[in-house]
Amino acid sequence: MTDETPESLIPYDEIVQDALRAVVGRVLGEVEQSGGLPGDHHFYITFRTRMPGVSIPKHLLERFPDEMTIVIQHRFWDLNVEEDSFTVGLSFGGVPATLHVPFAAVTQFHDPAVEFALTFQADADEAPREAHDEAENDPPDGAAGDAKDDGSNVVSVDFTRKK
To answer: Which residue range forms the structural domain that includes residue 118?
Structure first.
């Protein structure tokens, strides 16, 4: 007998990542259908800006060449959720912009109102991500930073792929 775990022929890590990204889609879909965010809920969504299917204005891509974080709270419009992506209107420095983001590009989802977070790990074959600036779309007055950070309700998925 050996202590080594055999390499799986079933891509469990990809299946779980897809299932957890579907949570993001379902939550955004419920916000779309209800026409707004319930209670104090709001979302920080981080995504890779150069992933296939991502569409953001050129000035934002120049400013965030690898990854950016957006806030969906008071100032958003035209949220449209599809099976594999979402589109939303946001304001950046007072300038409106429409962003289209496939769920496969999302790397983090956080709802500070209830300290719920999902983190999606980058594929082992991808280059490491560079540090990025905080969310830049126009925050509401008295925005984030009030929530406690005790780690409750945080789900972190860490997959390492054996080669």
So the answer is: 12-123
